[in-house]
């Protein structure tokens, strides 16, 4: 296990690094925006098993892949003017009983899904309209249902229902919402993973944003087989109903167990103390405490550890510092490129 003080090792930059980021939730756009500034070739693979909020409502009414995470990722990589982004992100307030809670972007994605007949082509069409720098791929072309088995042996389906159980999760898997077919990712998703220099997992909810993607059989197999550096961005805070009292090692262990081996090559972990006096629990009702560091346990997982002050708490909220995280990802990607070149 090695440690870094965030000094970026510069290697020959013969081409833009190919970086695939897999996940969902609010942390993903922060990292994608920072990577965009680093001039990387970005592919975002976004979870499609969300069943809460506006995404869940739209999904239930018109049977479409939940659009919320896709919407936020599109905005983070878009080169359209900010005013247009604001319109796309606008959410109707509660005074409008029909549109209450819905973001305009979610409705546009749902409409394009109907026009194209599938979510993958819909997102590619919208990516062109929004001048997206990179690629945004739904993890699956079909809506997926997240399933969980808890430590006590009980089983629950549905992301929202799983977290509401507030039980320790043993394992998760996904099923096709509309059929008995095995969930699968489309070929561009698999090709992006296999051709990547770095495959980044997170940041995001461990069991409901990251693992649902890896549990798509052919997508998980691609992550196992890729020669890319597999990087996990560990969460800063534990999450109620998912990772209560987890250490950074616990997070990595769960990913590796679901993949069936030690596939995480590098883990980015926060080593700085969080100023809890700035922390407003009302803003994070699902979060409990800072994730504890367990370097001994991480060593046993066989992964490189890069630890730094990865916190951006300037607003009083606890986010990853996108610039610092992106620097480390770029560093590892170029190192992987250099290593691959010397071995070929």
Automatic annotation (TrEMBL):
GO terms for molecular function: LPPG:FO 2-phospho-L-lactate transferase activity. The keyword Cytoplasm applies. This is Putative gluconeogenesis factor. Keywords: Cytoplasm. Transmembrane segments: none annotated. Belongs to the heat shock protein 70 family. Belongs to the gluconeogenesis factor family. The keyword Nucleus does not apply. GO terms for cellular component: cytoplasm. It comes from Lactobacillus apis. Its main location: cytoplasm. It is found in: Cytoplasm. Required for morphogenesis under gluconeogenic growth conditions. Pfam families: CofD (PF01933). GO terms for biological process: regulation of cell shape.
């Amino acid at each position: 296990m090695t440690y870094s003080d965030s000094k970026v090792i510069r290697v020959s930059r013969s081409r833009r690094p190919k970086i695939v980021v897999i996940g969902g939730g609010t942390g993903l756009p922060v990292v994608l925006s920072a990577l965009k500034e680093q001039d990387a070739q970005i592919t975002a693979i976004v979870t499609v098993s969300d069943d809460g909020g506006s995404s869940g409502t739209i999904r239930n009414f018109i049977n479409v892949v939940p659009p919320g995470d896709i919407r936020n990722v599109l905005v983070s990589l878009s080169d359209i003017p900010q005013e247009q982004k604001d319109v796309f992100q606008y959410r109707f307030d509660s005074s409008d009983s029909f549109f209450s809670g819905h973001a305009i972007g979610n409705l546009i994605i749902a409409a394009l899904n109907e026009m194209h007949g599938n979510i993958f082509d819909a997102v590619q069409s919208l990516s062109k309209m929004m001048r997206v720098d990179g690629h945004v791929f739904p993890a699956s072309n079909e809506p997926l249902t997240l399933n969980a088995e808890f430590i006590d042996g009980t089983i629950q389906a549905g992301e929202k229902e799983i977290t509401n159980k507030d039980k320790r999760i043993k394992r998760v898997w996904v099923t096709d919402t509309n059929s008995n077919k095995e969930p699968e990712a489309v070929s561009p998703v698999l090709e992006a993973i296999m051709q990547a220099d770095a495959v980044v997992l997170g940041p995001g909810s461990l069991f409901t944003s990251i693992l649902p993607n890896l549990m798509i059989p052919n997508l998980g197999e691609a992550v196992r087989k890729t020669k890319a550096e597999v990087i996990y961005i560990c969460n800063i805070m534990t999450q109620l109903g998912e990772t209560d009292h987890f250490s950074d090692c616990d997070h990595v262990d769960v990913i590796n167990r679901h993949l069936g081996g030690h596939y995480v090559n590098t883990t980015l972990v926060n080593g700085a103390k969080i100023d809890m006096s700035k922390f407003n629990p009302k803003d994070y009702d699902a979060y409990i405490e800072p994730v504890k560091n367990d370097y001994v346990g991480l060593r046993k997982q066989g992964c490189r550890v890069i630890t730094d002050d990865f916190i951006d708490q300037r607003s009083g909220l606890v986010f990853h510092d996108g610039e610092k995280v992106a620097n480390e990802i770029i560093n590892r990607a170029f190192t992987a490129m250099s290593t691959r070149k010397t071995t070929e």
